[in-house]
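Structure first, sequence second, as always.
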């Protein structure tokens, strides 16, 4: 099962109107500077306490600035029973 998805594939999913959660795990100030409007912002350190906001039955695509933080959040989500989680490779820098 793949663990990463390209920004181009995420853009295509958004354009098609696919049902998935795009999760931005950057900090608030990073999000304010540049963001993907459809993304839900939950900074990486807030993810554990905000898990109830992340529906485990949905496809989840996680992104950050370059892909490191989002990869760690993907691992955390998988360890907590989330099955359909992908890291957007290269983060918003490659968007």
């Amino acid at each position: 099962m793949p663990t990463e998805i390209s920004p181009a594939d995420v853009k295509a999913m958004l354009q098609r109107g696919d049902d998935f959660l795009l999760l931005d795990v950057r900090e608030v100030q990073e999000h304010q500077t540049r963001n993907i409007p459809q993304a839900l912002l939950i900074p990486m350190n807030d993810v554990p306490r905000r898990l109830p906001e992340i529906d485990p039955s949905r496809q989840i695509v996680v992104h950050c600035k370059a892909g490191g933080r989002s990869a760690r959040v993907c691992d955390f989500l998988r360890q907590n029973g989330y099955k359909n989680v992908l890291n957007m490779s290269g983060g918003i820098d490659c968007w």
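Margin note: The chain has one domain: 4-94.
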